[in-house]
Amino acid sequence: MTKSEFRYAHHPDDAKRYTTKELREHFLIPNLFEDDTIKLTYTMYDRYIVGGVLPVNKPLKLETIDELKSEHFLDRRELGIINVGGKGKVTVDGTVYELNKKEALYIGKGNKEVVFERIGDEQPYFYINSAPAHHAYPTKKVGKEDAEVIELGDTKYANRRTLNKLIVNSIVETCQLQMGLTELHEGNVWNTMPAHTHTRRMEAYFYFDLEAGQTISHFMGQPDETRHIFMQSHQAVISPEWSIHSGAGTSNYSFIWGMAGENLDYSDMDGVTPDGLR
User: Fold this and answer.
1) Burial per residue of 76-85, b for 16 or more beta-carbon CB atoms within 10 angstroms, e otherwise
2) Which parts are annotated binding residues?
3) Strands, E assignment, 95-147
4) In this structure, are residues 149 and 163 in contact, taking their beta carbons and an 8 Å threshold?
5) pTM score > 0.85 for this model?
6) Which helix (DSSP H) or strand (DSSP E) does residue 2 occupy?
7) How much is the mean pLDDT over the chain?
8) Residues contributing to the annotated binding site for Zn(2+)
9) N or C: which end of the chain has fewer CB within 10 A?
């Protein structure tokens, strides 16, 4: 089964007036995983799609949705997958790729059939992002050993973290999709601090591995007009190109960042110092 919903883009002047409820309705994706279901959110931010796939009792085939007006989901799109659960497999036009937790798979434009399955008693949770594509690049698995790893931050500032670049142009050829995974070290809670914006790209954050009973406060908005959304594990949030995207948890956690837009330059950021935020 495939379920989809649609989200419009928003002007920053409108977003600054939203109530807590309205902010959550427009930007938070609270329920990504449902048994034996593919759940998708189609956004008007660079026509990005955020989704979750949970094959419990049967394999799940990725079907096209009404918004795409295409015979197959990937006729004009590329797809990124990161498994955040137990070992699972993804079959792409007959070729099987096994994914352990925190491993990724890039699937290029033009592939016809994508099927998600569990392996034995393990329960995979497949987090997916998709963006429009103009060229067909090869499908490629990115294991933990393939990731480009960067150590960032400092325990002094509670933001020591390990960044794993997975689906980025230095590892995988893509049209515009970029994805990676960041792990906060124990005792550290701040991600993407100092904060930044990049008007050339939108972004989506997916939080996971958060201890039960804890929460993450995700910060968004223009640097001088910030807002926050409290989030739980296995929830995602849409980050417009005009918005910062940063967060602090009541314990450490991991998160996946995905982006699409004007360029593939990861370092293309307009930084904001912590004391410059409002």
Assistant:
1) ebbbbbbbbb
2) 196, 198, 203, 245
3) 95-99, 104-107, 114-118, 126-132, 140-142
4) yes
5) yes
6) strand 2-7
7) 96
8) 196, 198, 203, 245
9) C
- For 31-46, b/e burial (b = at least 16 CB within 10 A) is ebbeeebbbbbbbebb
Spatial CA neighbour of 85 closest among 151, 35, 159? 35
Q: Average pLDDT of 178-195?
A: 96
Check residue 265 and give its pLDDT.
86
Q: What average pLDDT does this structure show over 106-133?
A: 97
Give me the count of residues in the chain. Answer: 278
Share of the chain above pLDDT 70, in %: 100
Residue of 222, 257, 195 lying closest to 11 (CA atoms)? 222
pLDDT at 267 over 90: no
Nearest to 79 by CA among 167, 163, 165, 19: 167
100 pLDDT higher than 90: yes
Please name which of 51, 143, 56 lies closest in space to residue 97, comparing C-alpha atoms. 143
Report whether 90 contacts 116 (CB < 8 A).
yes
| Cβ-contact 187, 252 below 8 angstroms | yes
What is the rounded CA–CA span in Å between residue 129 and residue 79?
6
Mean pLDDT, residues 59-81: 97
What is the maximum alpha-carbon separation in the chain? 53
Q: What is the CATH number of domain 2-276?
A: 2.60.120.10
Q: How far is CA 170 from CA 104, 147, 201, in A?
A: 15, 10, 18
Element (H, E) at 26: helix 20-27
CA 88/CA 83 separation, integer angstroms: 8
Query: What residues does each domain of the chain span?
Result: 2-276
The tokens 């393939």 sit on which residue?
146
Bridge-partner residues for 128, per DSSP?
Answer: 51, 81
